[in-house]
Specification:
The protein is mainly alpha-helical and 108 residues long. The protein is 73% helix and 0% strand. It folds into 2 domains: 33 residues; 73 residues, no CATH class.
């Protein structure tokens, strides 16, 4: 296809629509072949981990606030703040900290 043909808006929209239809068909075949229960379990695990990290970030922000930059945004997101803390707890061999983090998650 010559490059000047892409400058035509109608042709560009037509190509975009055809490509998206092809991509959706390929994805639907791939998803159909996978076991949906595995996908659901994986999605549930990812959502659980995201929620845990986000709640930990909120809790840590209350204890040690994240610095606010000049433009008014935080230096780190709450998710990143909680995720780095959880990663440091999980990769250290301190069982007491890990138990505290698990108690925080269960709200007890």
């Amino acid at each position: 296809m010559p490059p000047h043909a892409l400058l035509n808006p109608k042709l560009s929209i037509l190509i975009y629509r055809k490509l998206t239809i092809l991509i959706y068909r390929k994805l639907s075949i791939v998803i159909y072949r996978l076991h949906l229960d595995r996908i659901n379990k994986l999605l549930a695990l990812v959502l659980f981990a995201f929620t845990w990290a986000y709640l930990a970030g909120i809790f840590l922000d209350l204890l040690i606030p994240i610095k606010i930059k000049k433009h008014g945004r935080r230096a780190k997101s709450l998710f990143k703040y909680g995720l780095t803390y959880l990663a440091s707890v999980l990769f250290s061999n301190d069982i007491d900290k890990f138990k505290d983090v698990c108690k925080f998650l269960s709200c007890t």
